[in-house]
Amino acid sequence: MDFAYSAEDLKFRDDLRRWLTANLPAGWGRTVFEPKDEDERARFRLDWEKKLFKGGWNGIAWPKQYGGRGATLIEQGIFAEEMARARAPEGLNIIGRNLTGSTLLHHGTEAQKQRFLPKILSGEEVWCQGFSEPNAGSDLASVKCQAARDGDHFVVNGQKIWTSFAQYAQWCILLARTDPSLPKHKGISFLLVDMKTPGITIRPLRQISGESEFNESFFDDVRVPAQNLVGELNGGWKIAMTTLAYERGPEDALGRQIRFKLELDQLLETASTLKRGGKAAIDDPVLRQKLAKSVVEIELMRLNCLRSFSKSLKGEPPGPSASMLKLYWSHVTQSMYETALETLGPLAPLGEGDSLSPADGRFQLSFLQSRAFTIYSGSSEIQRNIIAERVLGLPK
To answer: Is 110 in the active site?
Structure first.
């Protein structure tokens, strides 16, 4: 593939850099950071998305008639790189922008696109993802949450878990079983659920990091208008696969790669200044070998993302190969944060706010957050099954 940008691409990048410089808070990433309180941080991230929308930089890949700017794949890649390089906030409405919107563009009716897409980009409506259940996570097709037809409504009963951002969401993309008599992959439908509907209960889950990004969600006789069905009745599995392909694909992974590279650069700087046994930690030959391994792996992650972008430019749709990206980056970054804690040695358990904690505890928190990487968006076991069966063509 050609790594050089065209004159139009360079102008796009320069315009974005100027906008970021003018709109990020003064001192951003050096003396000014996101709020520590989780609810304040959620409001801050949503305000940032609204600012992106007003500047014409939210949902840039979407068609202009729905509020986007019809950006090319190359421009999307540049956008992901520049946002990560500026350490810009990630936004709160990740499910709405990356998953719901992309799915509706493929499978939604024109009325659904007109109704929902503009309000996702404007930040007026935040979305959550109601896929996993207590006994249907990796085996997603085993969902038991039921939606029974009652006139011009579905009546939903059941439980979801790991519902990202449910406590902040106005809407939910929900997988529900609409025909228990059919094989498990064929009796599922994809619904759009207003989270203000009576009968919905949200319980935030306290995670190992101390954060509550995930929730339990309970649905008791929740009435959902039939017009909120996406695609065909009992055809939700195919639509869910589209959603998950975007969750695992290069559009998401490229921005992650740059953020992880910035973290690795900070780790290398910390290893160069932190003293262990009278010498800099990076002078330990065993540790230096592990750090070098992370440098190589993070660069390979970038090249894998670009290879996927190159395939997309040639017209290949997002598909099972996205599982290779997700499987690779999740394990590579877990390994990097394990090396980070080894670098810190006996100071590793010290968290944010402790005056002796290197880098103000950022690596400890990132290590804890990284434990979920090999579980969400499909566990590593599921990714390996997809790669084996659908990419390599191996028998089940």
So the answer is: no
